[in-house]
Q: What sequence folds into this?
């Protein structure tokens, strides 16, 4: 990257800072998604293959000649997964940069790199892990086709609640920190987030469509790979963005928009 990258991210004002952070976020998203793709190829795809084989055997299709699918399994592996993951990672990286601009300077006195790392950890929990604990992903062949819309809507609802609860927790911490110690304010904010998502998890309906005789090992391997892929993605985004943002902000001598606002 060197001087070319640093020169392209020269900062003259708040708008330039946002642009620079977005560039950092997009690059971080590409790096994180690349690592996630590699993980999926090694760990995730074998679990998917097992689930597809099981699905075919359950339907009695093992020895029956079938019309070829519109998109072959090989094409899905070679093109579909990488392209979808790269697009998703880039979008997430851009949103991550905006979230960084919002929280930097608002939650404790932490360096840009430190803020990026804890924000990536928080994003993994808020955006993925909490909704996943309520509505875990299932292997191919598990779930009724008629409930796809309902399951997608419920999952999106849980994601939205988790995100809103996290934003609210950040605001609560800022307000409480004016009156009590910073560490206690953080505890109050975390407790408020946990309370909201636990209540939401209890109120929202449960979806259980895994057949009783579905191999527990295959289910565990699939869900483990789903968690691992997201963990790799967010780790890659956090580390890459931390390195880039620290360099950009150190060279510019500027503070992030959130820090400049002060609240």
A:
């Amino acid at each position: 990257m060197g001087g070319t990258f640093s020169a392209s991210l020269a900062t003259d004002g708040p708008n330039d800072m946002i642009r620079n952070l977005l560039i950092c976020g997009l690059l971080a998203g590409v790096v994180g998604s690349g690592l996630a793709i590699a993980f999926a190829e090694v760990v995730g795809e074998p679990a998917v293959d097992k689930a597809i084989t099981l699905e075919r055997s359950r339907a009695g299709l093992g020895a029956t000649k079938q019309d070829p699918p519109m998109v072959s399994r090989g094409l899905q592996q070679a093109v579909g997964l990488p392209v979808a993951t790269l697009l998703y990672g880039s979008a997430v990286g851009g949103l991550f940069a905006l979230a960084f601009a919002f929280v930097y300077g608002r939650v404790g006195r932490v360096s840009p790199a430190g803020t990026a790392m804890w924000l990536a950890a928080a994003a993994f929990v808020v955006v993925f892990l909490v909704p996943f604990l309520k509505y875990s992903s299932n292997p191919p062949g598990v779930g009724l086709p008629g409930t796809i819309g309902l399951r997608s809507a419920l999952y999106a609802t849980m994601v939205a609640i988790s995100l809103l609860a996290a934003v609210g927790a950040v605001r609560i911490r800022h307000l409480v920190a004016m009156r009590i110690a910073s560490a206690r304010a953080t505890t109050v904010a975390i407790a408020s987030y946990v309370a909201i998502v636990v209540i939401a998890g209890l109120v929202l309906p449960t979806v259980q469509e895994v057949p009783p005789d579905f191999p527990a090992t295959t289910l565990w391997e699939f869900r483990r790979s789903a968690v691992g892929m997201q963990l790799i993605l967010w780790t890659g985004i956090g580390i890459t963005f931390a390195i880039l943002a620290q360099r950009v902000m150190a060279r510019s001598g500027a503070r992030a928009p959130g820090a400049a606002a002060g609240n």
